[in-house]
Specification:
3-stranded antiparallel sheet; disordered C terminus; elongated; alpha+beta; 5-stranded antiparallel sheet
Length: about 300
């Protein structure tokens, strides 16, 4: 009964596997760098002119009597179309969408090209271009440097700087006076995107460079998502995060594996004892059968002697 209770309390390997933390990021669409009021005024004028020209061409007959005034509705439609096109051109940006979150920084240029926080080597600010400059390597290991303009990506810059200061403050090389003038991280900015758990198989250990081939052997820094092999986890990550919990987790996993080995050994011993008991019972049964056979032979011999005596 006690063994059954212990077996029920003991978690299985699937239950013992810790749930991974939720990974998210924010997607930012580039905003126009032109004056917002200029875009609104042009848009209003374009819409009004298009509406007036369309009405005059379709329903209005005030210009039909005069040949000189008759083409005015067509001119209004053409002018409204030009103003609307200018509004679209000034109100949009050629900058690519930007993503900032747990896996790092990414830009969408057809495909998502990402730079993990652990691969960022430097973050600076160019005062002349009013842009944040990020230098590092992408997921394929290729060197990559890109700029995030403040005018087009004000919200993204706020979140990029905040996340960088929280995760990798050592590589942020921006003066305090400039940081004070940058936008703050608006909690409602961008679109939240849920991501799949980090795939650690195939990643390289940050200490030895050994490829991780078995997921339970990996330990991941919660700040920069730098991957370590469970037996080479340092006390402190390169980003500055303490890895005491990951080291303790390695010790627990080792003790659990030892306990499982001991349980397996005990189970093998119990099976061996059961087999020995079964063999002994079988030998006893054979011995009893042999004794019964000897007794039967003796009885037959006595019967034969009695028969011969009577004769």
């Amino acid at each position: 009964m006690d063994q059954e209770q212990e077996a029920e309390k003991k978690p299985s390997k699937k239950d013992a596997k810790k749930k991974r933390a939720r990974r998210t990021e924010r997607r930012f669409i580039a905003q126009s760098s032109h004056n917002a009021w200029l875009v609104r005024i042009l848009g209003g004028l374009g819409a009004t002119t298009l509406g007036a020209g369309t009405w005059g061409y379709t329903y209005g007959h005030a210009f039909d009597a005069d040949e000189k005034l008759k083409p005015i509705p067509a001119y209004l439609i053409a002018g409204g179309a030009v103003l609307t096109g200018a509004t679209i051109w000034l109100g949009t940006s050629s900058e690519m969408p930007l993503r900032v979150g747990d896996p790092g920084i990414a830009m969408e240029r057809g495909e998502v090209r990402r730079m993990a926080w652990s691969a960022v080597s430097q973050i600076t600010f160019e005062s002349g271009n009013l842009a944040v400059v990020v230098t590092g390597k992408d997921e394929s290991g290729s060197a990559w440097t890109f700029k995030v303009p403040l005018n087009a990506h004000a919200e993204a810059v706020g979140w990029l700087v905040k996340e960088a200061l929280d995760r990798i403050p050592k590589v942020v090389d921006i003066p305090d006076r400039v940081l004070e003038g940058l936008p703050s991280a608006n909690p409602h900015a961008g679109m939240m995107v849920d991501l799949e758990p980090l795939q650690v198989v195939g990643k390289k250990d940050a200490v030895t460079g050994k490829t991780i081939s078995y997921e339970p052997d990996a330990r991941v820094c919660t700040r920069c998502e730098r991957v370590y092999f469970k037996r080479t986890v340092p006390k402190k990550c390169k980003c500055g995060c303490l890895l005491t919990e990951l080291r303790a987790q390695t010790t627990v996993d080792t003790s659990d594996s030892v306990d499982e080995d001991e349980d397996d050994a005990d189970d093998d011993d119990d099976d061996a004892d059961d087999e020995d008991d079964d063999d002994a019972d079988a030998d006893d049964a054979d011995a009893d059968d042999a004794d019964d056979g000897d007794d039967a032979d003796a009885d037959d011999a006595d019967d034969d002697k009695r028969g011969s005596g009577r004769k």
